[in-house]
Write a structure and sequence with these properties.
heterodimer, A: 417 residues, Rossmann fold, 3 domains, seven-stranded mixed β-sheet, six-stranded mixed β-sheet, 15 helices, 17 strands, B: 196 residues, alpha/beta, Pyruvate-ferredoxin Oxidoreductase, domain 3
Amino acid sequence: MLRQLEGSRAVAEAVAACRPEVVCAYPISPQTHIIEAVGALVKSGTLAPCEFVNVESEFAAMSVCIGAAAAGARTYTATASQGLLFMIEAVYNAAGLGLPTVMTVANRALGAPINIWNDHSDAMSVRDAGWVQLFAETNQEAADLHVQAFRLAEELSLPVMVNMDGFVLTHAFEAVDVPAQDAVDAFLPPYLPRQVLDPGDPVTIGAMVGPEAFEEVRYLGHLRQLQALDRIPEIASEFAEAFGRASGGLVRPYRSEDADTVVLSMGSLLGTVKEAVDVCRGRGTRVGAVGVTTFRPFPGHAVVDALASARRVVVVEKALSPGLGGVLATDVAAALSGTGVAVHDVVAGLGGRPVTEASLVQLLETAAAGELGRLTFLDLDRSLVDGELARMAAARRSGPTAENLLRDLRVVGGRWA
Amino acid sequence: MFQVRFHGRGGQGVVTAAELLSVAAFAEGRHAQAFPSFGSERTGAPVVSFCRIAEVAVRTREPVAAPDALVVQDVTLLYQVDLFRGLAADGYLLLNSARPASELGIGEILARLPSGRVATVPATELAMAHVGRPLPNAPLLGAFAALTGAVSLGAVQRALTGRFAGAVGTSNAAAAAEAYRLVRPAQEALVRAPSA
């Protein structure tokens, strides 16, 4: 049944329908509403049996998930931004040990400068940790991806991260059909662990592995990711059959079949991208879009197939690898190597800067005219940058950059004065 | 698509107002999207929230830059830079004030909006009378329904009682109804005599 509700609430209810037995999380904006709602469902007995473990940090939260998963429990956590950084050692451990926790990341920028708003820097910081990384376009997809994530994680013994844009999705009210309990029960079999701490059949988990077998353990982890590449579209199509709507999968094209210029993007940005594509199509410009739902494992073949007709691809992403450019764009360029398709990186929406339809339309028209550069920072305030560069050239002790820029903009205490 | 921007201060239910408007529109069969302009909100600080109402699914995620209606929950914000930024030439302006709009020192914006597009309602006083707390959002939603017709009063009231259980819900619904009654007659008079 469609209901108008907050994204965080929809995800909390979808997670509860998956019947996690242990939930452990530490609050951080913009994840807080999710975990408050899951906590309330545990407290009210709606989600039972389930233990909600209060801990002192994100590091502890992921460590508890690892322990609970090793004991054979279905486990869930959620975090964002600095919280993800604080748990990063345990994030790698969950994947390295092959324990199937599901984690929501309410995507948010990383400091410094401290910033609570949305971008994908946090997810990109753990790109190589060995987790499956899925990105939701809408709150409906965010809710649905969690159901698929538990199925995938437990089947392959791999942790899965469901990324949803912080605030933009987590705090947005829109219509969501939260997966119903009986349908989720039918879709998601009980967790049968490959490895479990069982006093009746004791094992240790977490051995030190030296040069004799470390590469092999890593290679097996890579194989599990490749298996996920096969299973993700299969699970998505089973989901579509069971729930009657398309969610998840590897990539999703939009008006790209005959497009010369294709925008490729991840997450909620795709909504505004589609509006921009429609505007350009209305003017006769042959553009399209491809949404990347699965970022890790990276669906290189699916990306190449989806871009079959394209002459150029514009990768618009909310992340930056300083000194390189786009992160997603780098993977896309590697996948397209040898095809002759030109790849343009566009870094956009960092730290919550709105990505507007008007800017995207202009970007697409520029790209379609063959006038877009290799790397673009969308809506960059050049005068602000030049002001700081001039200050740095004029005096050695030019002071802290962030404070200088805010002074130039006359922003006080996070607000315009 | 009908786009609404709410301006108020932290603690006045600015975000909740946008959410409830989206719930009311959804209940009437429309597509709706509401979200806050996020910040390190604290009591008293300026807060902005948005709501879009449409006949098709709302895909865009950008903040509302060109609203069809502006709701000002706190008139001390009226003199902020850019408060009216992007408001449509025939947009609606709803103000929380016990005084008429003509006394609020915003002659410039009043002069450029057509008649029947501006209303004030003493939302804080109505909230104090009905709910006992200075939360102007529920009466403003009632007045919004009266001013714009974008949603019905009944849908607003159901959104309020759906969100707040018991007496809190019914007293907010009553406050919304009184605000509706204060604003509606002037709008109906305009409909009867459109040339006036």
